Each structure stands twice: as C-alpha cells, then as structure tokens.
Amino acid sequence: MIKTEKIFHLKSSRGRKLRVVREHYLRDHVPCYSSHCQANCDNDGKLLSEDLTHYVFPDVGVVVDYQEVLEFRELRGVVFTQTACHAVQHSKGRRQYNRLRNLLKDPRHDCILFANEFQQYAYCSREKGESQDKWHSRCVYSAAVWYHDHLAGVKPVVMVTEDVSAVAQYSSLNSGIYIVSMQEYLQNFWPELQAPQDLYCSVSQALQEKGSEGTEREYTEHLPLEVLEAGIKSGRYIQGTLHVNKHRAQNEAIVRLEGSSNKNTDLNSDVLVCGGKSRNRAVHGDTVAVELLPRSEWSGRAMALSEGQGEDKTPEGTQSQPMPTGCVVGIVQRNWRDYVVTFPTKEDTQSRSSRRILATPWDQRIPKIRISTQQADALQDHRVVVRIDSWESTSLYPNGHSVRVLGPAGELETEVQTILIENCVHLREMPVTSPENPWRADVEAEARRDLRDSHLVFSIDPRGCEDVDDTLSVRSLPGGERLELAVHIADVTHFVPEGSLTDLEARARATTYYLADRRYDMLPAVLSGDLCSLLGGVDRYAMSVMWELDARTMAVLKVWYGRTVIRSSYQLHYELAQALLNGEPAQVPELTQLDPVQRDSKLAQLTQALEMLTHVARHLRAQRDRGGALELEGVEVQAQLDEDKNITALVPRQPLEVHETVAECMIHANHWVARKIQETFPQQALLRHHPPPRQEFFCQLVDSAKARGFTINTRSNKDLAESLDQAVDPKDPLVNRLLRVMATQAMSNALYVSTGSIPQDQCYHYGLALDRYTHFTSPIRRYADVVVHRLLAAALGLDQAPSSKALASNRELEVLARHINKKNQAAQRTQKLSTELFQCLYFKDKDPLTDPCCVADGVVYSIRANGLLVFMPRYGLKGAVYVKNREGKVVSTGQDGACEWQSGSVHRYPDHISTVSSTGTTTFSLFHHITVRISVQSSRCHSDSLRLEVLSNTPHQSPEPADQPGPQPQGRTRLVQEVVRLAEATQQAQEKAAQGKRPSREERAFCQTKEPNLYALLEEVRELALMDPQACGAEA
Prior knowledge:
It is an enzyme of class 3 (hydrolase). The protein is α+β, with helices and mostly antiparallel strands. The chain is built from 25 helices and 39 strands. Helix content is about 30%, strand content about 25%. β22 and β23 form a beta hairpin. α6 runs antiparallel to α7. The chain starts with a strand and ends with a helix. Residues about 310-315, about 635-655, about 960-970 and about 995-1035 have low confidence and may be disordered.
C-alpha cells in the first residue's frame, strides 16, 4: 500500500476558495470484476459476462452528459471508473449519482464500478497546469490500459470520449485499446440498436443548444444549497414539496410542508405560492425552500370552479380565507422525471427554420419545455417522451431533449402508455420459467405442517379469479369448547428468493397495476396464476396462521404460525358461498361428479363450515366495532360474463355478508402477524400506519350532513362510525353513501412504515380500530406482503439457510416503505386515469344532443362559488356543473324545470346555490337530484375530459323501466367493453391490411393480456370513481 495525497479546490458558502489536502492510499490489488480474470482478484459481487466481445470505458464527459444512453441494458460490458462516478456526484447532484449507483447494483445491467483511483498502477495524479477535463481523460485512459493488461488482452477495450483531442492523443498508443467518439461507438459496435442512437442524437442536440438563450434575467437566482440548509434550520425558510393546482397551473401552487423540516412553530398549514414568478422555476414535485411574505400580502385559494383548460383568472370574491403565502427562494431537490409532450403544429410555431420548439406537456401542471429537434414536422400530433435538462434564470422555459416517440395522440395504446409514463410506471420484461431451471412445487422437499387430509380448506373469491392469494379453514376441536380458525396464504417467498431477478422486478413494481382494460402483474404469470395460486384440488405451499378460539366468546386462546402444505377442496365464488349460507339451491362444481348420497354429505359439511366461519367473523367484527372501526365503502358493482368469460356488462350488486366474512378473517390475520413481527423486531417491522385525520378536513362532511338534518361527531373513530350509521335517509340511500365518501376523503392516507421510525403508541390503525396492522394476505399482488412474509419467517426462525440474507435495518426498511408507498399511489392514479380515458372514449363518438346515453341523473354533493359538483350513479362519474359561464350568464329554469342561460347573478350559501335572472330564482341544494348532459371536451395536448351541463333541476327519468328483469348494462365496465371492442376492430382492420398479424410490442415485452379481465375489473371498481385518489390510500 502506497500513501499519497489528493488535493481538492473547493469554494465555501461565502465564496472563498479553499485548498483541501487529504491522505490517499493506493493498493496493488483492486477487484476487476471480470469473468476472465486470471489474477485471483477478490471479485465478490457482480461480474461482467463471459460472452462479451469487448469492454467499454466511458470518459467522464460521456458519463456526465450521456448517462441515460449508457443505461440501455443492451449496452453490455460497461466499466464505470471511480473518477467518472465522482464527477457525476459533484456536477450532477445526489439524485443523478444515486441513479448511477443503482445502475451499478442492478444485476440485470452488465456494468461494474472499477476503483481506478485506488489502484497503484492505474491512478494518475494531476499535473501542474493540467485542466480538469484533460486530467479526467488521462485517468480513464490509464484505467483502460491497466484493465486491458490485467486481463492479458483477452478482450479489446474501447474508450468512449467526446474529446476530439483525446481521440487524437491516445488512439495510436496501445494496440488492443480503441479510442472512439460516442456516436462512432454506437454506430459501429451496436448498429442494430436504434433507440440508443436516437437518444444520443437528442441529448447531443440539446447540449449544443444549451446556453444560447439571451442574457436578460427572467427569474431571480436560486440561493446556494448551503444557504438554504442554514435558513431552513434557523426557521427563516420553510422546506416542502411543490404541488401545482392542475386547474390553475399558471397561477396557483402550494408547498406541502415536511414535518421535521418546519422550524416555524407558528405555521401549521401549507404555504400558497401565487404566480409563475413567485414559483421561480420550481416544477411540480420539486422539494423547495420558500420564504413567507408579510401577512398583508397573504392570499387565499380560489374557490370557484375553473371552466376549461388554461383558465387562471380567479373571479373576485371567490377566494378562501387568506393563508400563509410565500415565494420560492431555492431548490433543495429537483424531482424531474420523464414527461410526455405533444409537439406544436406548423401554425403554432413561429419559425420552422429553428430547431428549437416549445412542446406542451400532457400534465397541465408542467410548464412548456423547449426541445431541440429536427423532427418537429414529422412528430406533429404525436406523444413524445422528453426529459428536462436545465432551467436557467435567463430562460422563460426549461430546456430538455426527446427520449422516444410513443405514437399518434388519441390512439388507445398511445394514451395508455402515456398514463403509465406520467405516473413513473416503467415495466421491464418479467422472468419466465425454463426447462433448465423450472419453478415447481416439490411437496416432499422440505418439512411443512401437512394439512391436506386433516383440514377442509376452501377459498372464496370473485367469480373467475385466477390468482388466489388466500384460503380458509374452520373446525370444531374435540370436546366442543374450542374452535380452530385458520387463514392460509400463498407462500410466494418460497418461489421468490430475496435478491433474485424475480424479486428485484417485483420490488421495482411493488404492486399489480390494474387498468380499465388490462392489468400488469407483479409476479410472472407462471407464479401468480399457477404455482403460487391456491387453486382447488392441487397441492400448494402456504404460510398459515391458525387460532384456537373459545367457542362461546371467540377469545383467542392460542395462535400458531408456520409453513404448511394444503389442498383446497373448494374454489368458491362469493355468490355461490352466499347461496349456500342462505340455504338456496346451488351447484358446487367440485361435487357434480359424485353420487347423490356422497354429494349431500359433503355439501352439508361445506355448508356447516361456512356457517361456522360466518359466526366467527360476526364476533370478530363486533369486537372491532366496539373499538370504533369505520365502514367507508363506496358503491359496489359486479361484472356480468358470457359463456366465453367475456365481460358483457357491469351492474350494481347488493353487498353480501360473505364479503365481510372473508374480509374480517383477512384483517384478523394481518393484525396478528403485525403483533408477531413487531414483538420480535420492534425496530424493523413493516406495518400499515393509518393516523387520525385532521379535524379541519371534516368541515365538508359536517356541513353537508347538517344541511340534511344529521349531526356528525368526529371526535373519535367510534363517534364518527356511530354518526355515519345514523345518517340515513330512507328516501334516498345515496345520501349515506355520499356522506361516507366525504368521510373517506377526509381521512389521512394509510402508509407503510418501519416500526423504528415512529413511536410504538402511534402504530394505531385509525380506520380499522386496531393497535397494530400490516399486510400479509396478498403476496401475489403486493410486495409489502412479501416483505412481511420474510419478516414472519425470520421471527419464527424458519430461514436458517446460509444463503438467507440478513434482516433489513430500520433505515433500509423505511426506504423500501417509501418506495412501496410511492408505487401504490402511482397505481391508484394510473387506475383512475385509465378509467377516465375509457369514459371519454366511450362518449366521444356519441352525439350529446340526441343520444340518450349522454343524459343521466346527477346528485349534488358539493357547492362551489360558480357551480356544483355532482355524482352520476349510472356511470359512477363525478364532475363539475357550472351555473355561471364565462360570459357572465347564469342557469335559469322554466316552469317545466328545463334550464337555459340568461343574464343574472349567483348567490352561494353553505347548503345551496341560487341564480337570479329575469325569469326568477333557481336553487340547487346539496343532495338534490338534477338532470345532466355528458359530452367530451377534446384537447390536442392534454387528456380529454368530460363536460357536464345541467339540463333540468329535476331528477332524470330513464326511458328504461327500473324493474326490467335481468341485468342492465351500465357502469364503467360498459364503457370499457365498447371502447375495447372498437379499438380491437380498428386494430384488426389495420393488421389485415398489413402482411400478417403480429403481437404488439407490449405483449412481446411483458407477456400481459390486453383483454378485459374479470379480476382486474373487480379490483378496479372496488373503490368507485366516487372516491378521490387521495382518499384511496386511507384504506386498510
């Protein structure tokens, strides 16, 4: 080991130049991480593949500017030098550096980190007078030479650099080492890869255009990070995340405070930021520092409905009470992501000779992005993925570059991919089983508790469900004084070892994504639909929780956790199970082949088990009800299938007791597993935390209920639950449903947390009234459940194999919890946007003036300054209805209740809104039924939206008889069904015109079906459009 020195030239927060000297030690042996190494290097970790044709060393400038090009998995054998990684850290910031570190850790990418600055013969000290760029290039070249010689020239080494002088200087020095530019490397070594070449051209063009803006300052400069940190610590500045109002994107945003970062004790609410200048180049999602304005300059949020896209003017007298208002003084962390934009038309571009255009993002909260491209004409009316590179104070707009083209705007597949990208849902290829290394369940391979012959196990799921996560069993123990209740969950962790490629992809996805017409599974289909799924009549691995209960009081006397092997005897659906409980004639598929005597005997045994299970579940629910458990459910619907299992309609369904029975058993299992893992790992267990909501969030619920004559007590979850149970209007059941939805909207989001991050007394789950709760029962579709399964196995001492990894620390688990929370929220937004897409596609080709499908009954559930928010049960839609338009006219009704626009005024009250015109006064009250017309408001650059218009202040009378026998096609799946049918017909016609039918790019890449799927839709409509996406996280 050789000791030397490294000299750093730094600049302090006050601008002073500092010279820092540090000791630096060089070693003779540094891991090379090559499979061809013959020098016995200590290569502990990821190795470069043996089948590589060459190794590539990107120069520092290439890594800094073209890192995203090097992230293509097709580019293999990339050796990142320590010099390049340090340059990224210092010039690009923490976020980009962490992205590079994750790339190096990912075993799916064939790249490694070479510590050249610690290798004695690869290290280069900086020479006097040598520029930093020249020194960096010499360091990378020296590392490439050492690597080539270390491996005895077994493979050629390519150094990629954008420095022309470096190419000339080093090209002829060593045989076997080639110095080329990035463009030459891509064209000569990877000519078949068009995507990396296109991305390189886009980034290169953006770099050439960088700095060509004028010198006139448009925004104030951001304060340095060290000044911001000091100001946040002292309380002068406030740190938070910027959230732009999508309805007033140009004028209104709020900074949502981050708990521990707020040192201003007088501030307990969000901070309002008005106008683009006050936002100071901050983009939606950025972590910013704001400085409060004087109280005399504080403003209120707009309370009026925004009519149309891009409307930012707030009518006078329609603002809320003044709230803390500030301006952005600096960016703590940029959180830029991939954005989908639409290029302007020729008419919208002033100069087509310029390569720089302003592209409009699909997300209205994002400012226009200046793109340098030569394909502006060809990509008109196309959706294009772009990334922001910079936003200088001299530019009105951020600069960026294009990444790839999604397709023509308006096409179904393009719009679906847009939704996925806008929510950061990036799906990679799923691992598949193979003859060489197949997934299989060898029942005799390990010791498990065998329940196949001793227990009657059955599942109860939605009709047609394929990925069965859970099964149940219940029996009376000898003596009759005790019962045994058991929940058996698919043992996914047996097939998905921690750190495997399948585990890494499942962790990245974190959940199964349910869209209106498809789903993207978290696990490969061979696992989710076969080996892990607890299907009937086959042996399956399970992780079981079994309780011995007092037969009279249902008190838990004993609990057992462990791995089991089960064979489910019956795969029931909800309607069949309820029919058996009701004593109605029902045909159980598993019993159809038996003789009548044997069939009757087994049917009686199954019915008895269901009755016992229902009895137990009632007691469990009663225990939680006494603690204050809330019931916050939306409108439930069920899918109607034809003989080929295609969805033909969605009809409202009556809630069945068996739904609550199964849910109660799952809640019971989740609760007891949470107790076990927290008791064993008090600082590193993954729990589901649902904090109590802030009381001010209940204002709308309390006021709306008061308008109907009900009193809502929100002091505790028990008081709230009792109040909601009493707030029932026998004439209109929708009133109670809407009140429960308002209660759901007031809830805080339920989040995954590590127990070491919060005090133990704060682990309480508000909605379920349980002191501890987690997710254990759905490991096929939730990665959090996979983590909990591993924690439970560790708590029971079941994983003693040498290969088993150490338990994650509290910090690592908290990072994972934040990742899962983020992905769950993305899944909820994706699901909501997908549904809205199909709603618009369904109504787009219908004439709103003549088509009866465009007229529906709506219920008023909120009053605004210039309109109403209504819910339409027929389609499960929510939307805004205006009673005052842009021209200043108001809605007026005639004697028959029909509405028309006339000159007049609007008067808003807490429980109603009135318009006054020459024909009289028209009043719309909370929970009032009105007739609404639905049409589509098209947008070229953004998503289409539904426009609602009041036709009459009387309830809509449907032309179809209400008591018509048979299911009536309605609801959101009807929209999905028709849109999918039309899209498929168009696609088939296009494929027929081409030379043959080929699977889509998405089907080839992910092996995922695009056909409507019962389970996906049942999951998708569990929370109807009634619920806001922010409220979805409040569920258990």
